[in-house]
Amino acid sequence: MAVRLLDHQLSDICLGKPALTSISLSATLADALSALKKLGENYISVWNCSSHYSKSSSHYDCRCIGKISVLDVVLFLCKEENLSQPALALQSSVSVLIPPVPVLVRHLEPHASLMEAIDLLLEGAQNLVVPIQTRTSAKSREKVLEVVAPFDCPLHNGLEYCWITQEDIIRYLLNSIGLFSPTSITPVNSLNAIDTVNILALHYDDPALSALPLLSQAIIHQSSIAIVDSDGKLIGEISPLTLNSFDETITAAIVTLSAGELMAYVNCNDPPEYLVQLVKDRLEGRNLRGLLEWVEEESAMSAMSSCSSFCSSSSDDDSGSWWGRSGKLRKCSTRQVRRSSEVAVCNPRSSLVAVMIQALALRVPYMWVTEEDECLVGIITFTSMLKVFHERLKSMC
């Protein structure tokens, strides 16, 4: 049974996966945001197609070289040089967010093995780009992308692609969890799966701006930023997943609020009216009038075009306002939003399989580890889980 699992190919995991949506390297950040909003997705793949035309395949040579999220754009806008003219910054090429050497995205063939996939993920890859072996849905997909992203072709090298994530692999391994007993029922603190050193954390009163370098690390390591009190107790988090559920105007809150205030602000239910006003006052106090006007303009345009399910009806005098009379946040996406009260927490004595199930159920790639008194012990990520399974799989050979 173990040998059979090791022989499994990525094509098995690709079954039912949707085709990648994409933009070209020549697109702008504004183009990427437009596509993300219209598609309602958290990430969009970035492709580079060379000018070399292959007669043998009758296609240009194309490679996926990265991915972009709303949060990636927000972090770019939060740079000091972009705060005064965010609209101009959004005209930058998406290439400003793509590293010279692709790290987070790697290509693999459908016949690649499960172990090959895990090896690449443990090397730092987040998404494995794999050709889809059937093209039955290509025409329907192309019609969608003609409307959403006319600046790029949905097919690359004559094929559609999907991508495989750590979550896909963990979910796949869970289906064969019986093969990993007794490891699967062993407490995570006995498996060296808890990271107690590389914990990204801020105090409640720290400025949210200090979270920027931590957010960059959290994106790379697919983790989150813990918000702790003076006693080291976990009271919430600033999660890339949550921030990625907002649009680019969340930049204003990040550059003005404290970590604790931002945590409360992004609950996306009904931000306290004093926080909404505080953002406006601090923008004006820091002489960021350009950012303030841009947020107002973007919000007014969004209110005119559509209103998400989180928006409530309002009178004409505040319908285009970023902060209506109720303080209701109008920039919340229809994508899934996690609240700080729903922080993913487990006990250090929880079994590996229990932590897997809990993380998959919450759709997060990590779990905070706390003791009964809520003191933060560490974090366990999909990466650390994969390391455990990797060692176990090698021992099965």
Explain what you see.
By secondary structure, this protein is an alpha/beta fold. It has 17 helices and twelve strands. It has helices at 2-6, 10-14, 29-39, 70-77, 80-83, 86-89, 114-122, 138-148, 166-174, 212-221, 240-243, 251-254, 259-265, 273-285, 289-305, 352-362, 382-396, and strands spanning 22-24, 43-54, 59-69, 105-107, 127-131, 161-165, 201-203, 225-228, 234-238, 345-346, 366-370, 376-381. The strands form four sheets. Strands 1-2-3 form a three-stranded mixed sheet. The chain has a three-stranded mixed sheet with strand order 4-5-6. Helix 7 packs across helix 17, helix 9 (166-174) packs across helix 16 and helix 9 packs across helix 17. It is flat and about 65 Å long. The model is unreliable at 51-55, 140-153 and 307-341 (pLDDT under 50).
